[in-house]
Amino acid sequence: MLIENPLMEARQVTLYYGASEALRDVTLQAAPHQITALIGPSGCGKSTMLRCFNRMNDLIPHVRLSGQILYRTHDLYHPDIDPVEVRRKIGMVFQKPNPFPKSIYENVAWGARLNGYRGNMDELVERCLRQAALWDEVQDQLRKSALALSGGQQQRLCIARTIATEPEVILMDEPCSALDPIATLRIEDLMRELKERYTIIIVTHNMQQAARVSDYTAMMMLTDDRAAGTIIEFGETQRLFTTPSDRRTEDYITGRFG
Amino acid sequence: MGVDNFPPMLVLRRRSRPGEWLIQGFLLLCALLSILTTLGIVVVLGRESWLFFGDEAVTLSEFLTSTTWQPAIGHFGVWPLLNATLMTTTIAMLVAIPLGLGVAIYLSEYAAPHVHDFLKPTLEVLAGIPTVVYGYFALTFMTPLLQNLFGRETVEIYNTASAGLVMGIMILPLIASLSEDALRAVPRSLREAAYALGATPLETSTQVVLPAALSGISAAIILGISRAIGETMIVSIAAGAGPSFTLNPFEAAETMTGHIARISGGDLSYNTIDYNSIFALGMTLFIFTFSLNLISRIIVERFREVYE
Ligand SMILES: Nc1ncnc2c1ncn2[C@@H]1O[C@H](COP(=O)(O)OP(=O)(O)OP(=O)(O)O)[C@@H](O)[C@H]1O
Ligand SMILES: [Mg+2]
User: CATH number, domain at A181?
Assistant: First the structure.
């Protein structure tokens, strides 16, 4: 095994949306306090894989999953596991910023309150906004609607909101795809800081981004019969980007693919 | 090649497009028609009410303050009728708002697709039942039920509680269906955001989805209230005939609409004071629903959570 003590692990996961297969026999590990990147062409199942880790797929009717998703020692798809509790430990940031149509303050406070946070809320909101590198821009307008923020600010607010619930793992699905290069770099800096406290799994289409921020990279691609996505190569980012062992990985990261 | 298929000269001059004009004109006509109809109604109501208040037997202050409505002996206080209307409406909304919202939330947030596809049309059938059926349902089912529960001595045969409860059942599908549409229109991404923070389905639907759908839901509620205020058949059949001022929901009382229906059903001659009084009542109804709409607009403006 590549990673000795993974915090999260997918073991031989196969997933169907109704009758159509989306993932086949995917095995993947995420090391604690490291950033794991999922890369691969569009439609190969990266988002689907990511959403298995916090049982977000439960919200879609007719999804069937076999195999195991392990978090520490727990099998997350075991019938005794409560998906609500899972999502409190494993947060998610989406591709399109989706702040609540509430105030900036309330966006951060809401999740924390749900999770039973009992400390000083003002303090928590400030701390999370600072961690998300947003505090300086919004400190005078905490009562303003979050929808008045720019896309990049909204995305950082979504990160702040996720941090406020104190998860252990943060899943990010192309968090920078709607942002300009400067906002993207800020979020990347942020991820490097966040990894001190959290374990991060990120989906990205941006090869440089994967190379810049991640410690491990998983290359996903459709199976040969083009029916479902699977992981064709997984390894330390440095190694995978310099000496890919699979020809398809090399083609993809050098832009020769498709 | 493609370029050669276009005319050689570049023409950017403004072109006239008669089709656009025609459609625009037609749509404007439709809008004007509904405005004109409303105006027409207001004019007629206003004119006849003017005649009513012009009569020396009537004063505006008596109309607005007195609790006796006895046209035969020249008493025209609107309160007995207004009070009955307010009572049946309140009772109806106490049933229709919580149940309607409950059904809407269940349908949009909880129901499995096949349950939803079965329940929603059923609900809409319920909305299509003629009100006269509801009226007799109130009289022959709800009233006996209330009498069994609270005793025959306390519950009269005709009473506002029975009419109000059944009216609530009648309005429930309207509120449920419109509210569900509003809830469904809330983007998926907001629900996902809530779930990803560890919210339960209940927390998600009541604290995120419901507030985001507020403007649609309040429109549904206002429509429901207007419907309750204007409802005639059920109250005519089940609430009682004869204006009496009572705050007891188990006693008979006549609503404004019930009164109008009963009076105009008799042989009423044109331009008598009884005849004109109907229009004054109609005007009162109109003012009520109109202000309701206004108030709701203000409320929605202030509290709604806009999403993109
Ligand atoms: N809700 C759904 N219902 C049915 N099929 C779905 C659903 N979501 C995704 N799929 C299918 O599963 C496959 C993988 O989709 P997924 O969104 O995971 O790809 P992706 O790698 O994230 O693509 P992209 O890079 O474009 O975001 C696709 O073929 C897609 O059509
Ligand atoms: Mg995706």
Answer: 3.40.50.300
B234 burial type by CB count under 10 A (0-12 exposed, 13-18 middle, 19+ buried): buried
Give the gap in angstroms from C-alpha B126 to the nearest C-alpha of chain A: 28
Return the residue in B117, B189, B197, B300 with the most chain A beta carbons within 10 A, the one to mutate for interface testing. Answer: B197
pTM of the complete model beyond 0.80: yes
Residue of A nearest to B192 (CA): A56
Q: For chain A, what is the domain count? A: 1
Residues B38-79 pLDDT 10s: 899 999 999 988 888 888 878 888 888 888 888 878 888 889
b/e map B12-44, b = 16+ CB within 10 Å: eeeeeeeeeeeeeeeeeeeeeeeeeeeeeeeee
Show the domain range for A207.
Answer: 8-96+168-253
Q: How far is the C-alpha of A228 from the C-alpha of A219, rounded, in Å? A: 14
Neighbours of ion ligand 2 (CB under 5 A): A 47
Does A228 sit in the ligand 1 pocket, CB within 6 Å? no
| Inside any domain, residue A159 | no
**What residues of A are in contact with residue B208 (Cβ under 8 Å)?**
100
From A48, A53, A220, A231, the mutation candidate for ligand 1 (largest count of ligand atoms within 8 A of CB) is A48
Ligand 2 center to A72 CA (angstroms): 26
Regarding the beta carbon of A43 and ligand 1, being less than 6 Å apart is answered: yes
Rg of chain B (C-alpha set): 25
How far does chain A reach from its first CA to its final CA, in angstroms?
31
Token pair 């303090």 is found at A123
Task: List pLDDT tens digits, range A148-188.
Answer: 999 889 999 999 999 999 999 999 999 988 778 888 888 89
Query: Are A216 and A39 in contact, with CB atoms under 8 Å apart?
Result: no
